[in-house]
Fold this sequence. Notes:
Layout: E1 6-10, H1 15-28, E2 32-35, H2 44-52, E3 57-60, E4 63-64, H3 70-83, E5 88-93, H4 97-103, H5 111-131, E6 137-138, E7 143-144, E8 162-166, H6 170-179, E9 182-184, H7 191-208, E10 217-221, E11 224-225, H8 230-248, H9 254-259, H10 265-275, H11 278-283, H12 287-293, E12 295-296, H13 302-310, E13 316-318, H14 326-337
Parallel strand pairs: 1-2, 1-13, 2-3, 3-5, 4-5, 5-8, 8-9, 9-10, 10-13, 11-12
Antiparallel strand pairs: 6-7
Amino acid sequence: MLPRMKIDGGIAMQLDQAAAAAQTIERRGYDGGWTGEISHDVFLPLLLAAEHTERIEIGTCIAVAFARNPMTIANVAWDLNAYSQGRLVLGLGSQIRAHIEKRFGMPWGKPVARMREFVAALQAIWSCWNEGTALRFEGEFYRHTLMTPMFVPEPQPYGTPRIFLAAVGEAMTELCGEVADGMHTHAFTTPRYLADVSLPALQRGIETAGRTRADVEVCCPAFVVTGTTDEEMAASASAMRRQISFYASTPAYRGVLEVHGLGDLQPELRTLSMRGEGAAMGDLITDDILETFAVVEPLDRLASAVRARYEGLVDRIMMGLPNASDEQVAQLLAELRA
């Protein structure tokens, strides 16, 4: 599978950096570039990326669906897909209850059923715009029944964007197999969790919908610890320990830890997190835990390590290599695609 694996990079979220970041990704030979919804809007950088690139796919990894509604997402995705000439991949995720209710002030409940309906509503809206069908979507969570000609976007020849859904738990992963064009795994996902939990659940959803595995692209953001010197490796490892400890403290991701017999680590990290003891959290991530969740290799051996870790499991990976030169990245990509 790896010779046809797509390799992606990240697009800077700051608007004054997004265009240059996207151009760098395209120049270096990546297949796609993703934005993530953290401290900036997830869609605005993609407009700049579309304007300043010609080849790469661009997409969200992820946009928080439940912070919005299907009509607003349908509109912005339609426009970005048209402007990028069909290169947009719309990645959606549910986020977790605390963020939806306390950060976004939106309702939470039945996230898998709500996401299923969200995707169906998007398709109904796009069908109305593409084919002129009457908009008559009435569900448990969303209702869209008004679309007058004034509010229909201009026709465009690129169709509608592919939809990827983010999933960690089995139920949401099954939904990906049923209704999505792709699945964003979480970076906290390990190869063992993929093989034992995620991919079997995805296959169940695929079979329920009468589809094939080729219909669903699996995308994995990879945790990477790398460098060209001992000092760079140490700094990269330190930063990664903190990142892993943050995700491992989250109850929603305890299932991944339990696959590796590390379930008891989650409440311990959660307690430290509530106390604001970030350094102590990182100290709990041993070398073995670090290597469970991240590829840990010098840059000149990174390609072979990535192949060994992900071959046969995923269709595309995202790797951030901010300190590598164009030549080093080109060599890495060539080795991955050899």
